[in-house]
Design a protein that fits this description.
The complex is a heterodimer.
Chain A: H1 2-37, H2 42-50, H3 73-81, H4 83-116, E1 117-118, H5 122-134, H6 137-150, H7 158-165, H8 168-178, H9 183-191, H10 196-207, H11 209-224, H12 228-233, H13 243-253, H14 258-286
Chain B: E1 2-3, H1 8-33, H2 48-54, H3 57-89, H4 96-107, H5 110-120, H6 126-133, H7 148-172, H8 176-184, H9 189-216, H10 220-227, H11 238-247, H12 251-282
């Protein structure tokens, strides 16, 4: 009996692993292909992409797996010959850095107030954060436009940046982590005569390292992939657009370098991810997610 | 817990001020705006804007598509991420690399992935090659109403990892002894999932579902990249409607659409919340 159970367990574990390997391979495939194709010569890529939209029943596109020769020409063309791409790329960098800088200042402090202090209206305030977090962008967009007009920020990058500095989801995430910090640790600080400010910097922040990392990585993803906000707030200033909005307009006219531009665009996200991936898993693991 | 500390304001105010100015005040102030006629006098017209809007076909189309697309992709993400999380749990420590890979697309910008997606789903692309290999007909993925499939797949591909991570975290907190005991009692894997796993992670499952649903309205991004500002009818979302109205400076329509949509979302959440409460009592 135990023998059979053991054997069945081994087979199901094998099937389980096999399925996961297949799913992960499929997950990676689009990213790998993008990088692979970025090393093809421009002419080969152009020819390949021009076989798209062919409705002949007997013909397929080739499945390209190896370039006729490995070439960095796409990257050269993109970085040296086409200043527009780099300019938009830098726009995206600036947006992302400003948003992250604002979040790092505003969100942990507010989360600290919402988790480690007791005051009247705290629950109401937290409920408000929850509600705001659950409103889709379509709902908040129109009222925000009115505010931005009143403040004179329409068609300036600040209309995109400022609201995202206070993103309710990350306030929620960080607050859920901080309520899980044992009260003893905070009160021990109080006994030693440390004030709320010292407790924040010497106890709470160091302990919150995983969730800070998670929030940085996840909001990097948001900021790097901005589409809805710039489309609305920057409708009349195309040269302030981030790369995310312009990417497809740009790439449809530059078929030869499209995979290199995609690969370059993905790269920072992957670097950030590989640096923070443990924090994301650990941070969410330790937060109260219900 | 700190009580009656003046320094509270130091931590609370900066964030709270921003939250008020950029999120709460606009939301509340906009309600009044949606009830006026938008001239300089701002005359109150009450629900005139809403009446006009709800009679508008483009609005109906956008709303219907937004709801449909999100209600198709949310269950897929929800179920798929739950199954993946259960599969990962049985691997224990060795599940880390798999989880890392599954979350990776979440950080990849969808516009950068679009071109490879178009190649894969082209009429002569890999997906149709597979279909023909299986003896099926080719599908015009990008040129017909079937466009919804690649769009939803792109969205699921990108977002499923995040739900897997939240589910995995919740599953990790279920003690192993429960399952060992269930095994001894002869409960199969499905019975175990139903009687142990689900009830224990129900609150988390609720959060995953709600977040997946709210985020599913962002599916506009993927549609916009493929179809531009005026895509095919099947994928014309509410966001398209609002953007296009907005560029024609019809702010009243846009705000009225926003609050109509908010109302629908809130009613849905309330129903979801109530159904959770009812099921919780049954246990």
């Amino acid at each position: 009996m135990t023998g059979r159970l053991f054997k069945r367990g081994r087979i199901s574990r094998f099937v389980n692993t096999l399925l996961l390997v297949i799913i992960c391979a499929l997950t990676l495939l689009p990213i790998i292909l993008t990088f692979l194709y970025s090393f093809f010569p421009m002419s080969e890529m152009k020819a390949f992409l021009s076989t798209r939209n062919n409705y002949d029943q007997n013909r397929f596109m080739d499945v390209l797996l190896a370039p006729s020769m490995v070439s960095l020409r796409q990257y050269y063309d993109l970085l040296i010959d086409k200043p527009l791409y780099l300019q938009l790329f830098m726009n995206s960098v600036v947006y992302t850095l400003l948003i992250l800088a604002g979040e790092i200042f505003f969100i942990p402090t507010l989360a600290y107030a919402l988790s480690c202090f007791r005051f009247r209206g705290r629950n109401a305030l937290f409920f408000m954060v929850l509600m705001l977090m659950l409103l889709p962008f379509q709902v908040t967009m129109a009222p925000s436009v009115l505010t931005m007009r009143t403040l004179g920020l329409m068609n300036t990058p600040w209309a995109v940046i400022l609201p995202l500095m206070f993103a309710p989801f990350y306030i929620f995430l960080m607050r859920q982590f901080m309520v899980g910090i044992p009260t003893d640790m905070i009160e021990a600080g109080l006994m030693d005569g440390a004030g709320t400010i010292r407790t924040f910097f010497h106890v709470v922040l160091p302990l919150s390292k995983p969730i800070l990392g998670a929030a940085v990585a996840l909001s990097f993803a948001d900021a790097w992939n901005l589409v809805e906000q710039p489309l609305i707030y920057l409708a009349n200033s195309p040269n302030q657009m981030p790369l995310s909005v312009m990417f497809n307009t740009l790439s449809s006219s530059e078929q030869g370098v499209v995979f290199a531009s995609a690969a370059l665009y993905i790269m920072p996200a992957l670097l950030i991810y590989s640096y923070f991936q443990e924090d994301i898993l650990l941070g969410i693991q330790l937060s109260d997610m219900k | 817990m700190f009580v009656k500390k003046k320094s509270l304001w130091l931590f609370l105010l900066p964030g709270l001020a921003g939250l008020m100015v950029f999120h709460l005040v606009p939301f509340i102030g906009g309600i009044y705006f949606s009830l006026t006629d938008g001239t300089i006098n701002n005359n109150l017209v009450w629900f005139e804007n809403y009446k006009r809007l709800w009679a508008n076909q483009a609005f109906q189309q956008g709303l219907k598509n937004s709801l449909e697309l999100s209600l198709m992709s949310t269950p897929i993400i929800f179920l798929f991420s739950f199954i993946l999380a259960v599969m990962l749990k049985s691997l224990r420590e060795r599940s880390l690399p798999y989880r890392n890979i599954l979350l990776m697309p979440y950080l990849v910008p969808s516009s950068a992935l679009l071109i490879i997606w178009m190649v894969i789903f082209d009429y002569g692309g890999i997906v149709n090659r597979l279909l023909v290999g299986l003896g099926l007909e080719r599908v015009m993925w990008l040129e017909s109403g079937a466009l919804r499939v690649p769009i939803i797949l792109l969205y699921v591909w990108k977002n499923v990892g995040f739900s897997v991570v939240i589910f995995s975290a919740a599953l990790q907190s279920v003690p192993d002894e429960y399952y060992e005991f269930a095994m001894l009692e002869g409960a199969g894997p499905i019975r175990q999932a139903r009687s142990i796993t689900l009830p224990l992670i129900l609150p988390t499952a609720f959060l995953v579902f709600v977040l997946a649903w709210v985020n599913a309205f962002k599916i506009f991004k993927e549609v916009y990249f493929i179809g531009g500002a005026y895509p095919r009818d099947e994928v014309y979302t509410l966001q398209h409607f609002m953007n296009n109205r907005f560029s024609k400076l019809e702010y009243q329509d846009v705000t009225a659409a926003a609050y109509s949509f908010a109302l629908i979302v809130l009613v849905f959440f309330a129903l979801l919340y109530l159904s959770r409460g009812v099921r919780g009592d049954d246990r």
